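Hi U.,

Before I forget, here's the chain from the pilot set. I'm dumping it here mostly so it's searchable later in email.
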Amino acid sequence: MNSQPTGGQALVSSLIQHGVEDLFLIPGIQLDWAVDALRQCSEHIELFVPRHEQSTTYMADGYYRASGRVGTAMVVPGPGALNAGAGLATAYACNSKVLFITGQIHSSGIGRGCGLLHEIKDQTGFVRGLGKWNHVVSSAADIRPSVANAFAELHKGRPRPVGLEIPHDFLSSKIDPT
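Structure:
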């Protein structure tokens, strides 16, 4: 990767660093920069793209139960996150370690009701309610530490899903290496 990576590249390199080898996702416009970074690292992470967001979290749950390894799912914000909720609720009830990554609308619009594409009221509250921990990334530079914190939370205490919400403008932003 180049000397000034995008937030999407930082996300993917962090997932690889934490041992993610399989990812269940439904791509969409808010995830374009992450999907591009995944394409650049296709020898490290295998992508599984079902037909519906609900399948991503059910697959991540089943992956954890079958392998004992963290299941990782990624979807677009709003309707994508809502659609993934059933599988996330099952993972919660069944004590599964699932990392749920969902896009977020542009960081400047969160909580403002601007009517942005895939905006829903209080996505963060919804995701928080289906896991033991949730974090909204605050900048592109916050992506790597946020992934590390998510994995730390996954391995603490009772196994349950954790959520990570990443505004799409942070996925496309360049990160200053200093």
